[in-house]
């Protein structure tokens, strides 16, 4: 009688668990390898946004601002993910504002060192700009609003016509596209990514075209960028760091825009509206809406350029140079 050989039992991990464990290990290793670079970039970002800004405190508002240069005063109002740094990036990229201009960049409610005051609204944001001009003893300015900063730029021009020499709107939000309970999937994804400095940093380093598409620059438009334009796109993403100090402002923008009604506008200053038809973040019907409701407005639509309009920056620089020179006056 032949006895069967005894079989030795080998404890093996099920295949799905093996794959999961491997993925977890790879993620942990990736984080450990990349984290020192993330910390360096975050320190650079904190140093950048803490460099030369000042704080104005009134009985109603705390306003962070920075002023550069002398000459025609230009109030720079940034979009989502911004602050004083994005205002200056906008001026450097899309506006020919060098010598002969006094650039006044502000951080809007919820961004960097400008906290959200009780009852914050687009109207009160405009009033905060007026308070800042009082503090700086500036009578009137050229107002430039980009993206989500466009609505408060329009509000300021509406409420303070004597203090507004001209208005420039770049890819500007002019109305609410959705309710707070009905945000598009794109917006929900953006908000999710931006809640973590590290996650957003990973996207900007490894998935640049993906994050640019989410913020309104289509892949085909990005592929057409020159090397300089690609560098500016990366600088735009880098300037959004540290997002932990800007996220509250973006959420507050969604809240405030719900009560903004441009159809009641009384804006009377010369206005230039610039937008791209392939902007997938702020659709160009915002530009049409602004043009329809602002009497002295000129609308310039480009077929391509994306939300940041980098493909058209040379054209826009020339356009804004002519417009501002015709509708502004020296510093006051």
Architecture (CATH level 2) name = 3-Layer(aba) Sandwich
The secondary-structure class comes to alpha/beta
- Largest beta sheet, briefly? 8 strands, mixed
Order of helices and strands: HEEEHEHEHEHHHHHHEHEH
Strand order of the largest sheet: 1-2-4-3-5-6-7-8
The whole-angstrom Rg is 24 Å
Descriptive report:
The chain is of the alpha/beta class and about 325 residues long. It has one domain: Alpha/Beta hydrolase fold, catalytic domain (Rossmann fold, 3-Layer(aba) Sandwich), CATH 3.40.50.1820. It has helices at about 15-50, 85-95, 120-135, 150-160, 185-195, 195-205, 210-215, 220-225, 225-240, 245-255, 285-295, 315-325; strands at about 55, 60-70, 70-75, 100-105, 140-145, 165-170, 270-275, 295-300. α4 links the parallel β5 (about 140-145) and β6 (about 165-170). α2 packs antiparallel against α9, α3 (about 120-135) crosses α4 (about 150-160) and α6 crosses α7 (about 210-215). The protein is globular. The N and C termini lie far apart (about 110 Å).
Ordered list of secondary-structure elements with their pairings:
Layout (H helix, E strand, L loop, with lengths): L14 H35 L4 E4 L4 E7 L2 E7 L6 H11 L5 E8 L14 H14 L5 E6 L3 H10 L4 E7 L14 H10 L2 H10 L1 H7 L4 H5 L3 H13 L7 H10 L14 E6 L8 H9 L3 E6 L10 H14 L6
Parallel strand pairs: 3-4, 3-5, 5-6, 6-7, 7-8
Antiparallel strand pairs: 1-2, 2-4
Helix pairs in contact: 2-9, 3-4, 6-7
Please name the defining characteristics of this protein.
alpha/beta, 332 residues, 12 helices, globular, eight-stranded mixed sheet, 45% helix, Rossmann fold
């Amino acid at each position: 009688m032949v006895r069967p050989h005894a079989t030795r039992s080998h404890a093996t991990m099920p295949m799905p668990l093996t794959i999961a464990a491997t993925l977890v290990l790879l993620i942990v290793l990736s984080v450990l390898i990349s984290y020192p670079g993330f910390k360096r970039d975050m320190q650079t970002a904190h140093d950048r946004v803490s460099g030369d800004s000042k704080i104005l405190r009134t009985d109603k508002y705390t306003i962070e601002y920075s002023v550069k240069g002398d000459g025609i005063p230009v109030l720079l109002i940034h979009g989502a993910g911004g602050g004083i740094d994005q205002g200056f990036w906008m001026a450097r990229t899309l506006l020919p504002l060098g010598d002969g201009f006094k650039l006044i960049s502000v951080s809007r409610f919820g961004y960097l060192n400008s906290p959200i005051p009780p009852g914050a609204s687009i109207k009160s944001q405009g009033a905060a700009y007026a308070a800042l001009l009082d503090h700086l003893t500036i009578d009137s300015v050229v107002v430039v609003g980009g993206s989500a900063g466009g609505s408060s730029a329009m509000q300021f021009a509406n409420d303070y016509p004597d203090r507004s020499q001209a208005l420039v709107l770049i890819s500007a939000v002019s109305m609410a596209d959705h309710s707070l309970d009905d945000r598009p999937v794109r917006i929900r994804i953006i908000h999710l990514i931006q809640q973590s400095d590290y996650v957003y940093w990973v996207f900007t380093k490894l998935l640049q075209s993906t994050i640019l598409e989410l913020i309104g620059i289509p892949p085909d438009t990005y592929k057409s960028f020159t090397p300089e334009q690609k560098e500016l796109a990366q600088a735009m993403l880098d300037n959004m760091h540290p997002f932990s100090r800007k996220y509250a402002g973006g959420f507050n923008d969604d809240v405030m825009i719900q009560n903004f009604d441009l159809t009641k506008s009384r804006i009377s200053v010369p206005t230039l509206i610039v937008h791209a038809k392939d902007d997938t973040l702020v659709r160009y019907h915002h530009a049409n809406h602004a043009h329809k409701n602002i009497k002295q407005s000129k609308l310039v639509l480009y077929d391509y350029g994306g939300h940041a309009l980098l493909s058209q920056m040379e054209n826009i620089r020339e356009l804004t140079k002519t417009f501002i020179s015709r509708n502004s006056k020296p510093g006051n």
